[in-house]
Hints:
Domain Clp R: 16-160
Pfam families: Clp_N
Strand order of the largest sheet: 1-2
Protein name: Clp amino terminal domain-containing protein, pathogenicity island component
Strand content: under 5%
Keywords: Repeat
Number of strands: 2
CATH topology: Double Clp-N motif
Number of helices: 8
Structural class: mainly alpha
Organism: Thermostaphylospora chromogena
CATH superfamily: Clp, N-terminal domain
Amino acid sequence: MRVFHRRIKVLHRPVSPLLTWNAIRTLDLAGKEAADHRHAHIAPEHLLLALTRFESGMAVKALDELGISPQTTLSEVERHIEPGSSAPAGEIPLSPRTERVLRLSHHEATLLGKCHVGTEHLLLGILAEGESIAARILTMMGADLSATRRGVIRVLLREAHEA
């Protein structure tokens, strides 16, 4: 697994030096989702859309572990978010909730004994934040924080065993 230990930029801003390449790609995809929906901020919903579109990521594997399909998740998120009024110009900032999701993702990684944040930790961060549309959709689909954390652990153990 590639981990970046130097300061890099996602969407032209510095991000944590301990994000996996897949987490960085997911943040970039979330920015594209926000732009495609003509939203002024990158919300947790855009992050969830990006996570579920990244089918080889650990977050999707964790959702599969819970019996939640990426396609169903995508459909539910798309059904709940309205398009914005105009395409944003320039950089799209993170919403305060998304910033909180990133902080909580780091906390979740630490709880699981990891020193880097992967897509699975971004998923857990969304659930830990708990108030966003994305968190409510995941909870409605049966992905509460405890069950998802257990699913992530099972996937990580399986991946380690197969390596």
